[in-house]
Design goal:
It is an enzyme of class 1 (oxidoreductase). Keywords: Flavoprotein, FMN, NADP, Nucleotide-binding, Oxidoreductase, RNA-binding, tRNA processing, tRNA-binding. The protein is an alpha/beta fold and 350 residues long. The chain folds into 2 domains: 250 residues, Aldolase class I (TIM Barrel, Alpha-Beta Barrel), CATH 3.20.20.70; 65 residues, Non-ribosomal Peptide Synthetase Peptidyl Carrier Protein, Chain A. The chain is built from 14 helices and 10 strands. Helix 7 links the parallel strand 8 and strand 9. The longest helix is centred in the last third of the chain and has 19 residues. The radius of gyration is 21 Å and the shape is globular.
């Protein structure tokens, strides 16, 4: 699989980690890097207007830029707002001061607080001229740092305009386009429409197309490249409790055996390391509260996960967190153990 090229930046493998609000902070990115396999990592989306206010009034920068100045590259920072000049102020700082690898613009967030209240994110899909103004202004101030855009198929199933938007994004000077295969109205319901994503490729002249949506296994990543006309893929929610998914997908793309899932005790150790990174940054109480959602992700799909989630959602101190993990985090899977036992019995009888 050829590497992805975003401007002069070469991304290999062409597997990207999606920016996700409230999740993809420096602690999570550190864990992903330890497993490997992600060609490009991204921050949580940063509110450009909030960045400017903090900078001018508190001489501080948002917590969502924690770690950005010092961590390894390549690294993308995603920003959002609807004002070209506000976005330009932040983009310039990210390119010149933080020296990020990519400045990504969020035109895909479907959350009401961003769309209806701030008229940003996926709301802007109904305003292609404003999108063009935002992108072109950022391209102007960020050069030579590439500027990219992330969109959805449209605002609703009745208003799918991703092909038109793709042309606008490229004409404005963006170096790549990422498309999530749902509309804003879909939120995360239903299945991502990869056929629609693939159709967009013919509307782009020179920039790469990155597909996003429902990639929760290495096999699905390989299938996305095999079946659809995309230059790269972006993994989102599935990686939150499985940061090793990128390494599995990268191995599959190379035609190598897919590494097995870590054992449940190993997964618990990863979660505890993640927890320590969060606590080191935010302190015992805030760090513990922030870790609740990550802990629920690590337990997702496991035997007994419901009991763990119920208890971990109430913790607020390191002592409580470690006690709940010790007592409730699933360390065995009766169904899998039964299957393994059946396999051993069959082998013994053959």
């Amino acid at each position: 699989m050829p590497p992805l090229r975003i401007g002069d930046l070469v991304i290999d493998p062409p597997i990207l980690q999606a920016p996700m609000a409230g999740f993809t902070n420096a602690a999570f990115r550190h864990i992903v890097r330890q497993f490997g396999g992600a060609g490009l990592l991204a921050t949580e989306m940063v509110n450009a207007r909030g960045f400017v206010w903090l900078d001018e009034n508190e001489a501080e920068h948002p917590d969502r830029l924690w770690g950005v100045a010092d961590e390894p590259r390549p690294l993308a920072v995603q920003i959002w707002d609807n004002d070209p000049e506000t976005m330009a102020k932040v983009g310039r700082r990210l390119a010149e001061e933080y020296r990020v690898s990519v400045v990504d613009i969020n035109f895909g967030c479907p959350v009401r607080q961003v769309t209806e209240k701030a008229h940003s994110g996926s709301y802007l899909l109904r305003e292609p001229n404003r999108m063009h103004a935002i992108i072109s202004r950022l391209v102007q101030v960020c050069a030579p740092t590439p500027v990219t855009a992330k969109i959805r198929l449209g605002c609703s199933r009745e208003n799918i305009n991703c092909n038109e938007i793709a042309r606008v994004v490229e004409e404005a000077g963006a170096a790549a386009l990422t498309v999530h295969g749902r509309t804003a109205a879909d939120m995360f319901r239903g299945n991502a429409d990869w056929e629609r994503i693939s159709e967009i490729k013919s509307h782009l002249r020179n920039i790469p197309l990155i597909g996003n949506g429902d990639l929760d296994s290495a096999e699905k990543v390989v299938a996305a490249f095999d079946q659809y006309d995309v230059d790269a893929v972006m993994i989102a929610r599935a990686c939150l409790g499985r940061p090793w998914l990128f390494a599995q997908a990268a191995a599959a793309l190379r035609g190598e055996p897919i590494p097995p899932e870590p054992t449940l005790p190993e997964q618990r150790d990863v979660m505890l390391k993640h927890y320590q990174l969060v606590v080191d940054r935010f302190g015992d109480e805030k760090g513990t509260v922030l870790m609740r959602k990550y802990a629920c992700c690590y337990a997702q799909g496991k035997h007994g996960a419901r009991y763990f989630r119920t208890h971990v959602a109430k913790v607020s101190t390191p002592e409580e967190f470690h006690s709940v993990v010790e007592e409730y985090f699933p360390l065995h899977d009766p169904k899998r153990e039964s299957q393994d036992a059946d396999s051993v019995s069959s082998a013994a009888g053959s």
